[in-house]
Amino acid sequence: MTPRCPAAPASASSRRQRSGRRSALRAALWATTLGAATLTLPLPGPLSAADVSVSVAGDEDLEDRMRAASLSVSAEDEGTTDAQELIAAAQADYRRLLAALYEDGYFSGAISIRIDGREASSMSVLDRDAQVNRIDISVTPGPRFSFGATSVAPLPEGVSPPEGFATGDPAGTVVMRQSAQAGRTAWAERGHAKAEITEQRITADHADRRVDAAFTIAPGPRLTFGPTLLSETARMSAVRPERIRAIAGLPEGEVYAPSEIDRAESRLRTAGAFASAVVTEAEEIGPNNTLPMTLEVEDAKPRRLGTGIEYATTDGLTLSGYWLHRNISGAADRLRFDAEVAGIGGETGGIDYALGATYTYPAFLSPDRSLIFGLDLAREDEPNYISTFAEASVGVDRYLTETLSANYELGFRISETEDANGTRDFTHLLLTGGLTWDNRDNSTNPTDGAYAEVTAMPFLGLSDTESGVLGTADLRGYRGFAEGRFVLAARLQMGVVAGPEIEEVPADWLFWSGGGDTVRGQGYQSLGVGSGDTATGGRGFAAISTELRTRIGESWGAAAFVDYGYVSADPDFAGGEWHGGAGVGVRYFTSIGPIRADLAVPVTGSVDSVSVYVGIGQSF
Predict the structure, then answer these.
(1) Fewest 10 Å CB contacts: which of 142, 178, 263, 551?
(2) What's the chain's Rg over C-alpha atoms?
(3) What is the side-by-side strand order in the sheet with 134-140?
(4) Residue 168, Cα to own-chain centre: how many angstroms?
């Protein structure tokens, strides 16, 4: 390797130098595509390191990418002091930085790496007496190239190369790799699992600053899913083999598609019985153009215990816990018990108790359905009512797409309510249907994406109990900006009870506003219909929350928020009342999610108070 790589552009008549450049370009592309060997030595822990400087002529953004690609910079960050390792890192940087330039479309750049004034390429890694005090990296990117002639062929009918890979677009090896891979994937999605890129022709014209790129794909035969096999580890699983296959749900005999493999892995992971799950394609095509699949699973621990704690100055202390038993009968089924005690030491009536049990049987009738039995017992001692109920249910959760799921449930409920309208008994037959959309990047600390849960529950009254419909919606959105330093989060909650009058509805189905889950800064369930001893919940409800979050360093964050809530007596939202609260909070980030502490005050009404809310996970 020469000190400057590659050399300055040659004249058009210099065929030998141009050929060398084309060879270098091909080598760099394959290095980034196929992972050609690059000398990367293990670096020791932080001590004191040589100073490393990186300069790129006229492009600060490119300088950041050069620093990210440099092993010398990594060595400085990790405190490497061994001279031989530093020399090796500097020499490896020629190829790494050249590949980074090619990724951004700079095909005639020049790189100089000097160690204490000497070009790194002239030094020996084996020199045990060498010393390294300073490494100076200088990059002259040269002009950015554009694509000339481009081609990915053949492609399936109706498929075109992706945007960015066309004559006149900025050139770069990243776009080339993505375009070639997109062509291979297009064939795979149509059943050609063994499609491969068999040839690439890439030439750089330095005089015209143009790169011609052509890729040839061999589709291979159209395949169908073959038999589903189990690896040795999977055969040792406590889950029965036929249940592992049923949960994976690979469609044997149907046309091969990579998306089916992804769904199979997702089903196995979400079944709850496995700590890991991988589906592997056979290397060789089977009889009659079939492709056998092998399932590799590792069992999760059969039992799990969890606890939770949350505190608010008005709501009091909430303690919760659960016990989970996985794979009870060898069918990947699971049994879970939940318990919660809320309102301890709070100003929200008495103490609330809840017990629940859930049995889940995955792959019920189809791989994407789970059968669920539930039993819930609860007593809610709230400021304006006391409600005791028992409910039994059976339902199905159905996976529709990676982000969308549905649930259907039939339930039977008996309850007793004591509120401003007296003591009443209710008996209901419930039919619940719901949809959940979730594409958040993280469930406990989302920075991008959306979450939506919509539920409709028609209820049939028995034994002189009225009938009607209860509907709820919870919509959340997240958007990061300023390079991820800030996140804007918003939430909209809505609810209606249609059919019976307020006094004919169980008190715990009516809506209130105020407290940590609706309007922070306002008292718990402080807004309903009416006031004083005659206050009840409403049949119409809406709440909106906005929160601006920022991260401060690695472990800390802060937030500012505004919440508003609305409750009306009627489901058409007419004649209701608003109230609002606002505040600030701090976040401490842990492996299980952020620990949250919020301070909030009212922004409506005459109440002068400060509320504190503490819990695990973001507020929504």
Answers:
(1) 178
(2) 32
(3) 51-56, 134-140, 110-115, 118-119
(4) 35
Q: What pLDDT digit, counting tens, does each position of 79-115 carry?
A: 888 889 999 999 999 999 999 999 999 999 999 999 9
Do residues 330 and 240 touch, judged by C-beta distance below 8 A?
yes
pLDDT digits (tens, 9 = 90+) for 542-573: 999 999 999 998 899 999 999 999 999 999 99
First to last CA, the chain: 56
In sequence order, what are the residues at sequence separation of 6 or more whose Cβ sits closer than 8 angstroms to the Cβ of residue 149? 167, 212, 213, 214
Residues making up the chain, counted from first to last: 620
Smallest CA-to-CA distance from 310 within 350, 346, 260 is with 346
Q: Look-up: residue for tokens 């790189």?
A: 111
CB 219 within 8 A of CB 192: yes
Distance (Å, rounded) from C-alpha 604 to C-alpha 582?
A: 10
pLDDT in tens, 453-500: 999 999 999 988 999 999 999 999 999 998 888 999 999 999 999 999
Whether the Cβ atoms of residue 502 and residue 536 lie closer than 8 Å to each other: yes
How far are the Cα atoms of 314, 344, 471 from residue 349, in angstroms, in the given order?
A: 10, 10, 26
- Distance CA(598)–CA(580), nearest Å, equals 15
Judged against a pLDDT cut of 80, whether residue 373 lies above it is answered with yes
Q: How far is CA 70 from the centre of its chain?
A: 29
> Which helix (DSSP H) or strand (DSSP E) does residue 425 occupy?
strand 422-438
Q: What is the spatial distance between Cα 13 and Cα 8, in angstroms, rounded to a whole number? A: 14
Question: Rounded CA gap, 482 and 477, in Å?
Answer: 17
Q: What would the two tokens of residue 455 be?
A: 């539920």
pLDDT tens digits along 333-369: 999 999 999 989 877 778 999 999 999 999 999 999 9
CA gap 245, 251 in Å, rounded: 10
